[in-house]
Amino acid sequence: MWFFARDPVRDFPFELIPEPPEGGLPGPWALHRGRKKATGSPVSIFVYDVKPGAEEQTQVAKAAFKRFKTLRHPNILAYIDGLETEKCLHVVTEAVTPLGIYLKARVEAGGLKELEISWGLHQIVKALSFLVNDCSLIHNNVCMAAVFVDRAGEWKLGGLDYMYSAQGNGGGPPRKGIPELEQYDPPELADSSGRVVREKWSADMWRLGCLIWEVFNGPLPRAAALRNPGKIPKTLVPHYCELVGANPKVRPNPARFLQNCQAPGGFMSNRFVETNLFLEEIQIKEPAEKQKFFQELSKSLDAFPEDFCRHKVLPQLLTAFEFGNAGAVVLTPLFKVGKFLSAEEYQQKIIPVVVKMFSSTDRAMRIRLLQQMEQFIQYLDEPTVNTQIFPHVVHGFLDTNPAIREQTVKSMLLLAPKLNEANLNVELMKHFARLQAKDEQGPIRCNTTVCLGKIGSYLSASTRHRVLTSAFSRATKDPFAASRVAGVLGFAATHNLYSMNDCAQKILPVLCGLTVDPEKSVRDQAFKAIRSFLSKLESVSEDPTQLEEVEKDVHAASSPGMGGAAASWAGWAVTGVSSLTSKLIRSHPTTAPTETNIPQRPTPEGVPAPAPTPVPATPTTSGHWETQEEDKDTAEDSSAADRWDDEDWGSLEQEAESVLAQQDDWSTGGQVSRASQVSNSDHKSSKSPESDWSSWEAEGSWEQGWQEPSSQEPPPDGTRLASEYNWGGPESSDKGDPFATLFARPSTQPRPDSWGEDNWEGLETDSRQVKAELARKKREERRREMEAKRAERKVAKGPMKLGARKLD
């Protein structure tokens, strides 16, 4: 029944792409591009159309079809599927390009490197060695038309049409009948007497010599051209001459040819071939060998072809991480190869691995991820960052290793634009407050201040108002000089986020206190910032209509565009202070903040005074800054406009670097002193991070440490009202000025106790202490009143008798 017949070509799971055949290969086959119907994955399809009167060619094509299905080797064209009908033969293989077309395209793109050719020839010779030595087969068709290249740049041996057994089974070699292929036959085939002694591989090795000549010199015009090596590299010429020698007996076995070329100084003795050979055997290598290989791989990737990195190195790296326990060593080459991928490919191949790596507890893995976050952050979407990455990253703030804490702080510069409201304004600020107030490493406290200034524009308006002023004010009281500089520069970088009232009442008083700082660099930054803020205040005072324009960003919502204004400020702290942190980690892992040039408070009674540490005087540079300040004064007098963006903050960063360079040598123990001597056993340095964190809600949160002062606060004890003060009359000499207690400058010197207990909160902390004291007094008075009332009732009524009835 004819209507039940099915067309096998239509039901074939692969289809041809409607394009002309590639290359016009000599022989019975035509090469077409194709794809799998189900997935669309690309393939190559060799098609042979059965023609009447071509029985010999049909038998050759069917023999090749059979060889393709039965021969499996990494260097032989991989068979996927096939179709055999009365009208045609279809052989589906991996997607490949004929070598001739591939070489021509590479020449047009800039030429093919010798590294690629060396590995390609290595693969072809290895395939011949497999056929001759393992299968006792003679290929009988080695030429340019029989070699194909896949998407990774790997050379594959095809053209199995005229293959025959070396043992004589099944007859001799089939007749080709194609002049383009017969020109590669060795000269001994023309001798029909059979007196020439030859090896079974002699003919194929002659053809291999022809292939080498064509790769370097182009199409072979005639056999006599083989006498001139042409462009063949000198390291390969001796071995090439052995292949095209007139005596077939001396032509080397394919296996020996590989050994000769891989000898030291040989054509195939290079890093590219060694890398490929290691990748082929990586599954049986020892873990130590894999670690060493991946560590050295990233140095060589720049010299390797891009297609090779994408399609061969990358899958091996992903497999090594998933199943080989390679660990952090795969990160550097992985991200280097990732640069060759498109955005879609990066999302599919790299991002799932990165997300999985962030959940690892391996410290080496975590710190390398943080260091290289800049290479993949643009491919991460906000939901992934907030739900799968940030929860793991924040653990780095509590790590006992200072290097991880520092890298975690730096990574927030990249993560902040992608964080949601809760993670950015609540969770992150809580960790920043803890680091800035309690971390024992000065550079980490400094970098926390720098990072806060750079991400300030991403914070909500309420968080900015509540956090920034208090945070930078706290930084200006840090014993570490670089942190004080960072606090001043933080005010400068976020100047557009403060109201005029805050500038006048909160920021300028803090900056004025730094004009007498022991470090000249801090004083210079303070004077510069004071002039800038005063310029803004003066311009608004002369023209009050500018107030709205000046304060337009104060109550504005968080804007990523505003972050560009602070993109370059204090960059020295994020990059240059790393060396300081490294020295701290190497020489003093648990060293407390340095007290360079900071005077100490008197030692309390009963505590032995520590031996004074000699501190070298910081040299004061003159000339550049004095001239610059004079120029600025002249310019400010001539214009009242706000010129903040014109300030030369690059030179300030260099000055700040000099502060770091002039600090005590961290590598010598005698010049490093602790900023606070622990006098209370509850605050010893051996206290675990977990215990610090458990008490953090009560000690170091932004709400308690950096809260805005209340508008209605009771005056301190002993302060009289203005109406009670004797403004005009004489005052007794034995009474001091009552305003002196209000304007007494709080000491910024650290107390000899733990870092977290220092009184750096300013007026906010003082107001809370006053409130707490008043509340305690009220409770005590109330308790006394209640006890007095109870006593009165008891005396008036007397003791009650047992069983008596209470009438009132």
From TrEMBL:
Domain of life: Eukaryota
Compositional bias ranges of the Basic and acidic residues kind: 681-690, 765-775, 782-795
Comp. bias regions, Low complexity: 556-565
Bias (Pro residues): 601-617
Annotated Gene Ontology cellular component terms: centrosome; cis-Golgi network; COPI vesicle coat; cytosol; endoplasmic reticulum-Golgi intermediate compartment
PROSITE patterns per the UniProt record, alphabetical: PROTEIN_KINASE_DOM
Pfam families attached to this UniProt entry: Pkinase
UniProt subcellular location: Cytoplasm, Cytoskeleton, Microtubule organizing center, Centrosome; Endoplasmic reticulum-Golgi intermediate compartment; Golgi apparatus, cis-Golgi network
InterPro entries: ARM-like (IPR011989), ARM-type_fold (IPR016024), CIK-Related_Protein (IPR051177), Kinase-like_dom_sf (IPR011009), Prot_kinase_dom (IPR000719)
A molecular-function term among this protein's GO annotations: protein kinase activity
Main location: cytoplasm
Keywords: Coiled coil, Cytoplasm, Cytoskeleton, ER-Golgi transport, Golgi apparatus, Phosphoprotein, Repeat, Transport
Transport recorded as keyword: yes
Ranges for region Disordered: 541-565, 587-646, 658-808
Any GO BP: retrograde vesicle-mediated transport, Golgi to endoplasmic reticulum
Biased composition (Acidic residues): 755-764
Compositionally skewed regions (Polar residues) per UniProt: 587-600, 660-680
Entry keyword Iron: no
Domain called Protein kinase: residue spans: 14-314
Family per record: Belongs to the protein kinase superfamily.
Summary of the function given for this chain in its UniProt record: Regulates COPI-mediated retrograde protein traffic at the interface between the Golgi apparatus and the endoplasmic reticulum. Involved in the maintenance of the Golgi apparatus morphology.
The name this protein goes by in its record: N-terminal kinase-like protein
